[in-house]
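#struct-pred
JK: can someone run the complex with fe (ii) ion? inputs below
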Amino acid sequence: MRIRELYYSNTNTYLIQGEEGCLLFDTGWAGTFPAFCHTMGDMNIPVQDIDYILISHYHPDHMGIAQEIADLGPVILVADIQRNHIHNSDSVFTKEGKMQFCPIRDSNVRFFPIREGRSKLKEIGIDGQVIHTPGHSDDSISLLLDDGSLFVGDLNPLYEVELHRGTLIEDSWNKLMALAPKTVYYGHAKSVSVSDPAMGRSEEKKDLYAIVAQIMKLTDKGYDISKIRKKTLCDESFIQDVMRMYLTHQNVGVQGILDRIEIKNR
Ligand SMILES: [Fe+2]
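RT: done, structure tokens with the ligand placed:
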């Protein structure tokens, strides 16, 4: 099995090569189709070689070019729990007007019960499972391969989980960590290794401290949320929280901000 990250949009998308076929996990924003084809061409992989497209959740930056890719042959696999969400982003693109966008044609889609994800993946020689991991959105799924590779889309990163106690985000991470993933591949952040789950969490906690300090520094420099997001790859609402705490509490430090965010999320 081989995992390749495709670099053509602001979303991290992955090509997973199984024994008998190929799966594309997530796609980019509408308008990125030419760049996608270019990237595939650079790797000498015909788009037609992709058997299935699996989308972590139906937000515009993950499903924007799914139909254009599917028009070349790949089949969009949709878990049953995503059934009512595949057109969630159509209105976003319609409002944008100018941007080229092809809504998903339901006739191209193959629905599968999420508990039967393993046998679906097996068809193309990939050993793994599909897990419902709500929190970022109701239709969020994660893909966990038996080698420990875990693809979570936009599920809030592990380093933030302390801030989401008692929420669906924590429930989803608990579910995933119980399955002992080794490497987590995010939709926007860098992939991380979590070979020892307990270690992974404490390392991530240290990261959180550094990230809050970085957001404070960038706020001082006058960066806005979107620029800070690009620099830190953090969740927008998390950046907003940190900025608000920082700007409204005089002389507050990193730990003070972390404590306040934690209290707010309890
Ligand atoms: Fe999202």
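RT: quick notes.
Residues 202-265 form one domain.
The two ends are 41 Å apart (CA to CA).
JK: thanks, will look after standup
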